[in-house]
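Subject: sequence -> structure tokens, single chain

Hey, anyone have a minute? Need the predicted structure for the following. Not urgent.
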Amino acid sequence: MEDNNQVQYSDFLPKLIQKDNFVGWTYAIDYENAYVMTNDLWKFKALGIPHNCFLLATTIQPDDFANTPNEDREVILLRVVGSAKLPQDDDLVRTKIDNFKDQKDIFENKERKIDDITQNELQFGGLQCRVLGTFFVDRGELWLGSDLESFATAARLNVYRPHGEALQTIVNYVDPIRRQSAKEAAQQLGFSREITPFQIGSVRYTSTDRLHRRDPRAEKVNVLVQPADFLARRTAVLGMTRTGKSNMVKQMVSVVMRVADECDAKIGQIIYDITGEYANANQQDKGALADIYPNNTVRYRMLETKGFEELQNNFYIQLNDGFAIIRRVVEENKNQQQNDVMVFLNTSFDEPEKDDQSSYKRWLVRTAAYQTMLYMAGYPSPTGFKVVFNANESVLEAINKEASKTFPNPKSGLPLAVAEEWFLAAREANKSKVLKSSSGKDWLDDDTKAMLNMMKQRNENETFIKGYKVLIDARPYHSQRRAQEVGDEIFNHLVTGKIVILDLSVGEASLRDEISKQIAKAIFNKSMHIFLEGNTPPNILFYIEEAHNLIGKGTALTETWPRIAKEGAKYRIGLVYATQEVTSMHPNILSNTENWFITHLNNAREIKELAQFYDFDDFSNSLVRAQDVGFARVKTLSSPFVIPVQIDKFDPEAERERVKRLEKKG
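Reply:
Had a minute. Here:
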């Protein structure tokens, strides 16, 4: 029995040729362009020739293919990119003008003054077309070369506009090598079976689609894409606001969920939701992704909210991450930069090696002082939290004497309220007589002394300073309930195939970069570590809305996002990024992008940048002029050229019903 994916195409070249859709002949051709003479009547019969539409040029007679010479058994694929001037055009223009001069009525007279021969001449015109490739058959399979191998100057090529099945073959063509690669990729990605293509929309050439899409004789042709093109790949969704970028992203999320369900696979998806439209229901989209996939979605926010996990880290436990946020907040307030505060902001909480006993003990004291200051600034602490550090007998004795009480030994742990008293007493004791370590060095280093001054709200000269209260503004970004690093927790969700939505619409915009980068870095490093250990990383897909805010063109190549774009494929990490500005994106990410979905762009600078990639230059004028929602120009990894597509509207109700049916079966 014949394999559906290995269709024998020995008779398929004739099927591409639809005699009823004849539109003219080529009168000139080279390796890059073809020029076609056409006629108004032929165009009318073929439902017009829209700008950017596909044409086919060949000498094959479909009814007599068996007698076609072997050298002629090919079909050249063209795209209309503009009009062309015929040699007689100037004379015909003069004829038209003379006729207009003699016109007595604004409407054409019943008795035509132009003779039939001249009228026939006036109906001819020229088209300029781009050569996209050559269809041919080899070993029973249809191939499309991406160029023209040779051409005969004297050859008269018939030109046809493909409709229906012929157009379906063109826009959904995947070469045999790519089909085999897709099978192998499915196995490598751990899928139980081959991934079937999915529909994203239908062919649309122009904004005005009265004939080629709405005419009763027209047949909308669906455009399919290969899901494997998006897994472990880079995908750009570019266009102005309200032109369908978010709709496309939602389509991708739902398709990946269907692929995972059908292939019994786990594919984690993480959405960086800058505007909150994926995490929260709105009237326009009739439900958020979390409503459609309630059992498979985990939402995070920077502030405590019902139905959301907390995106914040626990500052008591995730020392460096919390301290980075505090530093950012404090540095933004220029009025808080007293000397002790500046020393504190330059403190390091990196844990030294335990073998370095002296450095490690100082780190314990410094960390305990910082955690105590968090407590004083009103940061809720984990239940039963204590600070633990070492102090020699002489230090303990001096502090107990200063406080006129006996404290528990810090080595056994001090509750934070007790630690506050302990460190304030330590400050006074150290001012009376410098506390010394067992080795004879100062027991308090400069960083710790600065923090003790901040606790007391007094500098070394006992002048009032705001001290620990400068930490208060960063308090909303702390969560005492988190016992695990947020990046680790999110990675574990992704491993199980969850959709993780980071609602970054709430909270300080200035902190968005840092939190986003920390999570992305954790996921990337964990996937890389699994790979380097010889194991198989999980399938993960990143979605970045308003990507220019996170992956700007000034980002260093060594930073996380460019590394994800460049190296993510081998760690099974895919990246989908959406933005309004091509020029704002990091060039390394653009150059490593395999899939492109482009809607309306509003200026020549963005178009010029885009025109550097694939054959988007053919669509430059259309992209600027056409503002229709969902009208996209699509280039995927498997497709050899750009296809103009009207993207289907995401249907949340249909997807919700699919999920319910699946849950009933399960």
